[in-house]
Amino acid sequence: MEILAPTERRRTRAETDLETAFSSFVETYSGDVVDRAGAFARFSTAGLPHRRVEAYHFTDLRSMLASAPVPAAPTSRSAGGADLFVGLGAARAVFVDGFFRADLSDLSGLGDGVAVTTIAAGLAANDPALAALGGRVSADPAVERDPLVALASAFYGDGLIVRVAAGAVAARPLEIRHLSSGASVSAFVRHAVVVGEGASIEVIESHESPDGVEIHAHTLTELTLAAGAKAVWLDRQREGDQAARFSTLAVDLGKRAAFDHSVVTLGAKLARTQIFARLGEAADLSTRGATLVKGRSHADATLVVTHAEPHAVSRELYKSAVDGEAVSVFQGRIVVEKKAQGTDGRMGAHAVLLSDRAEAKAKPELEIFADDVACAHGATVAEIDETLKFYLMSRGIPAAETDKLLIRAFLGEVTDAIGSEGAREAIEAEIDGWIDARGDRT
């Protein structure tokens, strides 16, 4: 029997695939300004996270990922998907297999003071400004330690750099669409969005891929809001039934900055959405999520919200509807640093189980080092109220329609808060379709 030294560990097939891929990949980007080797070394040292890593206790990637598809290359292949937000009049940046497609995009009309460039163009020109993306992603050490952040930092080949000048207001929303060509690949995208003092922007991000194709989709987004800046962000994900979706958002809020964030998850075999937010003085953060999973899907929403300065406010509300043998996970932690007096933080996670085989796991946490705070958290898991369902049916409402009404009412606190009426209606229609696909369960 082989005995491993204490500092060694056996590599999984997925880790070996990634190491082999990086050996070739790094040659393609040889000489660019990004420290890919350093990023991959951070990943390789830790490896894929497992259940003994607290942040991944309920999402053991070492056992869940049997292999890793090869990294994607730019493609001219067509890509389909539900054009959910076509009627919103948004500027549009389309990525296929992780690379920007100018022929499918329209970035006009964002107005003066809003500049959008692609990372691929910057890499081709060896733009020194990109060197910052090879360094520290966030002041939060939890971000720097995260293996998915390190992996995305090593492999990304494209993305957007969005700069909103001080005082500027984007004239229309910016939609970022992530599509798949249908090839079995690993796609890595990195975005950097900087909103200047007193400026504002609305972003709609959408992820979609077909069923039946093994795809690993990684997105790493850094959002920096200067003093008094505002951003509204809607993230909608409907990946295929063999897809793994990993999305990280690291947001830094300056003094009196405000960030309103919504995430809706409706697909993927495996999905992990993680948000790391650091709040400055009197900053305001609202993040909410609606997760709908079925079959044997696994969806994980993980948040770390750090109050670093006094008088900031944060609100986190995440709801899940879980069907079949699916699993939903919520992990949320509010950290209040010592000087963050006057903090007001509230976190809630609630799930409804639509099957006796469905699972919902929640772990909300508070870490408070200040003594003048108002913080609270809570979590609930329940089934559909059969008494209420019987009452509705006794009024002549069919069983399938009562399920829709009750599930929609449960998720309504999340969807109702989506500010754009057109985006809200599109999301609600998609949720209705998900519920209708369950059929009559009486």
Shape: globular
Helix content: 10-25%
Taking the alpha carbons of the first and last residues, their distance comes to 55 Å
The rounded Rg comes to 21 Å
- Main beta-sheet strand count, sense and barrel state: 10 strands, mixed
Derived from helix and strand composition plus strand pairing, the structural class reads: alpha/beta
* Number of helical segments with 4 or more residues: 9
> Strand portion, in percent?
35-45%
- Helices and strands, in order, run as HHHEEEHHHEEEEEEEEEEEEEEEEHHH
Average pLDDT, all residues: 91
What is the number of independent domains?
Answer: 2
Account of the 3D structure:
The protein is α/β, with parallel strands linked by helices. It folds into 2 domains: 90-383, no CATH class; 386-442, no CATH class. Helix content is 21%, strand content 37%. The chain is built from 9 helices and 19 strands. The chain has helices spanning 13-28, 36-46, 61-64, 119-124, 141-145, 147-155, 386-394, 399-415, 421-436; strands at residues 91-96, 99-100, 114-118, 160-164, 174-179, 186-195, 200-208, 215-225, 230-238, 243-253, 258-265, 270-279, 284-293, 298-307, 313-322, 327-336, 343-353, 359-368, 373-383. The strands form 2 sheets. It has a 10-stranded mixed β-sheet, with helices on one face. A 9-stranded mixed β-sheet has the order 3-4-6-8-10-12-14-16-18. Helix 2 packs antiparallel against helix 6 (147-155) and helix 8 (399-415) runs antiparallel to helix 9 (421-436). The radius of gyration is 21 Å and the shape is globular. Residues 1-7 have low confidence and may be disordered.
